[in-house]
Amino acid sequence: MKLITIPGAPPPAGHYSPAVEAGGFVFVSGMLASTDPADAQKMDFEAQTRQVLARCAQALAAAGCSLNQVAQCTVYVVGGHHWADFNRVYKEVFGEHRPARAVVPVPELNHGFLVEVTMTAHRGN
To answer: Comparing C-alpha atoms, which of 95, 87, 75 is closest to residue 46?
Structure first.
């Protein structure tokens, strides 16, 4: 097992790694749009979604993977009314690649953010 850090990114605020590689898979921890809680009020939902997916891509890159190797995503979205906007941006970012996915509406997320994403990618052995 290998703990993955993101070069140039601040360390996690909690007791976890941004990603972990194990058995040919890369598990990306739940990512918010920023590590700065003040950013939750500065970014609209689309901006948060784009930033979350970019941060996930950075974690994958640090492990030697890309979004095209993602096998599964779990998405937590504040309020179901954001689902269509999330899906539009997600489709744009992933293109033709279609990982398995669950979108879970939640009442709130840490620091007032509106979207959180976790991913599992297959890197191979």
So the answer is: 87
pTM tops 0.70: yes
Q: Where are the domains of the chain?
A: 31-122
Instruction: Name the residue with higher pLDDT: 11 or 30.
Output: 30
* Class of CATH domain 31-122: alpha beta
Q: What pLDDT, on the 0 to 100 scale, is given for residue 12?
A: 84
In the structure encoding, which two tokens stand for residue 16, read together? 């976890």
Instruction: Give the pLDDT confidence of 46-72 residue by residue, as tens digits.
Output: 999 999 999 999 999 999 999 999 999
Instruction: Of 124, 125, 123, give the one whose Cα is nearest residue 28.
Output: 123
Cα(60)–Cα(71) distance, rounded to whole angstroms? 12
Contact 37, 31 (CB under 8 A): no
